[in-house]
Structure to design on (177 residues):
C-alpha cells in the first residue's frame, strides 16, 4: 500500500486524507451528540472533503519537491526501485552500499532538514496554542479533548526531536557508516 501511495495522484491523496479527517470529526462530533447522528456525519463529510481537497494537492506537491531534491542536478532522477531505497535510507535501515542511492538519501535528508527549519518558526507556537485551547476545551466540554492534547503534544515533541534524528542520519549517510 505504501509504495502505491508514493505514486498516487492528488485525487487519491485527497480521498484518503479526507476520509481519515471525516472519521476523526465524526468521532468527536458523535461523542458530544448536540445535533444528532445525521448532521454530525454530514458535517464530518463536508469537513473531510474540504480538508482532503487541500491536503491532496499539497502532499503531492511536497512529494514531487522531495523527488526533485533527491535527483542529481541535470538528471531526471532515480528509477522507482532506487528512489524507494533512497526514501527508506533517508529515515531508517542500513546505509545503502550504492553511492548514488546514498547520495540521493543524503540530499533528501538535507531537503527535509531545510523544510523542518522553515516550519519550526510557526509550528512550535501553533502547537503550544493548540495544546492550550484543547486543555481549556477538555476542562469545559468533554474529556475527549484530552486525546487532542496528547496528539498535539506528540506533534510538538516530534517537531523538536525529528531534526536531531535527521541530522544524525545525515552524518551516517555522508560518512557511509
Amino acid at each position: 500500500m505504501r509504495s502505491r501511495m508514493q505514486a498516487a495522484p492528488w485525487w487519491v491523496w485527497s480521498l484518503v486524507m479526507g476520509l481519515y479527517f471525516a472519521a476523526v470529526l465524526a468521532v468527536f462530533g458523535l461523542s458530544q451528540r448536540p445535533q444528532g447522528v445525521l448532521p454530525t456525519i454530514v458535517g464530518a463529510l463536508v469537513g473531510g472533503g474540504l480538508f482532503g481537497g487541500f491536503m491532496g494537492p499539497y502532499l503531492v506537491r511536497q512529494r514531487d519537491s522531495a523527488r526533485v531534491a533527491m535527483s542529481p542536478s541535470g538528471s531526471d532522477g532515480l528509477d522507482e526501485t532506487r528512489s524507494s531505497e533512497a526514501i527508506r535510507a533517508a529515515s531508517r535501515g542500513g546505509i545503502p552500499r550504492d553511492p548514488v542511492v546514498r547520495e540521493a538519501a543524503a540530499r533528501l535528508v538535507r531537503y527535509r532538514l531545510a523544510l523542518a527549519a522553515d516550519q519550526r518558526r510557526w509550528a512550535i507556537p501553533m502547537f503550544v496554542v493548540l495544546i492550550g485551547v484543547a486543555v481549556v476545551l477538555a476542562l469545559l466540554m468533554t474529556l475527549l479533548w484530552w486525546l487532542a492534547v496528547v496528539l498535539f503534544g506528540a506533534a510538538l515533541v516530534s517537531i523538536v526531536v525529528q531534526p536531531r534524528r535527521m541530522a544524525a542520519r545525515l552524518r551516517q549517510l555522508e560518512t557511509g557508516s
About this structure: Residues 85 and 123 are 29 Å apart (CA to CA). The chain has a mean pLDDT of 88. Residues 99-140 form the longest helix (42 residues).
